[in-house]
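ingest -> fold -> write
write: protein_1
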Amino acid sequence: MTGLQDDALPIEAGRLREAVAAIFTAAGCDADEGARIGRYLVEANLTGHDSHGVIRVPRYVYWLDTGAVFAGRSAKRVVDAGPVAVLDGDHGFGQTIGEQAVTLAVEKAREYCIAVVGLRNSGHLGRIGDWAELAASQGLVSIHFVNTSGLGMLVAPFGGTERRMSTNPICIGVPLPDGPPLVLDCATSIVAEGKVLVALNGGRPLPEGALIERDGRLSTDPAAIYGPLEGTQPHDQRTGSGAVRAMGEHKGSGISVMCELLAGALTGGGCGRAGHKTLENNMLSIVLDPARFGTEALMWPELDRYVDFVKSARAAPGHDRVRLPGEPEAEMRAQRGADGIPLPRRVRSSLALTANSLGLKDTAAVFKPPKRA
């Protein structure tokens, strides 16, 4: 899960949050938003999802500089009809807009038992598991479908070699009576785009067949997505001729198409289309209050029973035990909370360069890689 190689050196999570917050505050966010972005990005690293963590900082700052995303924006309600709402993110940071959208869904689910909230035109929403965890922290079940219009269109449909979809995550969160919730958070492609970015920046190589070239050859080379980089930070350079492959052949491809329709078309944010140069995330969130179903006396014991039953399965070769969705993240969070968050040399250098560009010499020093022996 870590996606990192041997040159990754650890940084304490709190120190990393402060450094990232300082970067975004210097870039134009107020202190609260800067801290919020830092908290969510570092949380992604803590849970082992480095593809959605601080590796995104240079790209986010670039988007802010070029007007692709804006600081200080709030989601605007364009539809508000009982348990249903549609919000326009106004191209604000996803860490702000996503939190606002799911908080509204939580409030509506409390009132109506169920809430369906569509979000369109948000900046990058980060790790979607954050939003399932937010709902679960209030005792609520949630389902989230996400797509990315335009720039994020990187995935080839099953049977094709050209980009027609984004990596389109689907996320489901279920609270448990005791302990952390079960959270399934996965792209509908073999790898998320961020995993390709991690591989490009010194992380773990991609799995065999994760990418496909235009001529149909399978590949693991990030240049298939980003093109020849000559050592530069890619930002939005995605000029390769290849595509990411859908997971699970036709099944994953079909789920991805449905994510496009639910998150993109239903919310009004739009599905993947050629020629669109900026990245907007759209999300359809369904939040349920189990306390209103009248089944609590049966539900919680059954959750416990079935979780125990699944985990009692004999471990397969190469595994010490069965893990359920959310458990690897909880284990990684504990490990990295104690040992620090490992960042490859290239990622550290990129973060230091971004901090220096904003005049933050002390912050840049946090990321500065030690000299090679």
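write: protein_2
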Amino acid sequence: MFTVILGLSSAFIFGSADFLGGFAAKRISPILTTAIGAISGLVVLLIVFPFVASVWSTEAVILGLLSGVNGAIAIGLLYACLAIGPMSILSPLTAVVSAIVPVTVGLISGESLGFFGFVAISLALVAVVLVGFVPEKGAVRPSLRALLMAIGAGAAIGLFLVILDATPDDSGIIPILGNRVANGLVMSSLFIVLTLIARRKSAGAPIAARAAIWRRGIYFAMAAGALDVIANMGILVGVRIGDLSVIAVLTALYPAGTVILAAIVLRERIAPVQYVGLVLGILAGVLLVLSG
């Protein structure tokens, strides 16, 4: 029961982080948004760290750093494929693959699911697709390049869950600390390099104007990073007390958080097919409780 609550809560928080990150990315670059988010998330972790029992070990640090580098790759591929589009196909594809990878690893590792468990996971995967589906007039078919990027992004996100599941149980939030440090260093370095290149190509562009645009998105980026790390901590607890396959599928419902907030804040219309997906996601959660 608690594992299901953690999975669904983490999914909603992830979706909320994506929603705020989307606001930030419209005002500043996606790379800078990610870099700022990593730093703000690290601040949250440093505040929480003294209150969480954590045992330092080489394994915990290495796995944490590895998950951070992997996360940077996942984000890079995700933004790249969504930029190519169409998002209505590529976004749910990424979410489904992100669930399939850890579910497969979990089952191979010996995790067992009853009848209700398998039905729930099947329903949840369908829910992921329906919730992430946004009907678009004249939507084009995705290119092979975009499909491969989406699959790569989903696989990298799924691998992140697998890495967290492999961390020592007594390591507390040390793996997440390592994740934020590595992710922040990678994305910050990338942003600096790309900024220097851009300045050389546009030597006469007013720097003050660019700085003003960045400032308008920095608070959204900070909030997104804080929420993201809270979701990561929830997932970390979830994979340690429950099955990786269950947490992976529930977390993949994160588009629901974005859809709900977009409907409330931006008054965006939720398509009937998305309502069906939300209902199936709730039903999947109930079945997972029954199977536990």
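write: annotation protein_2
Residues 207-241 form the longest helix (35 residues).
DSSP finds eleven helices and no strands in the chain.
pipeline exit 0
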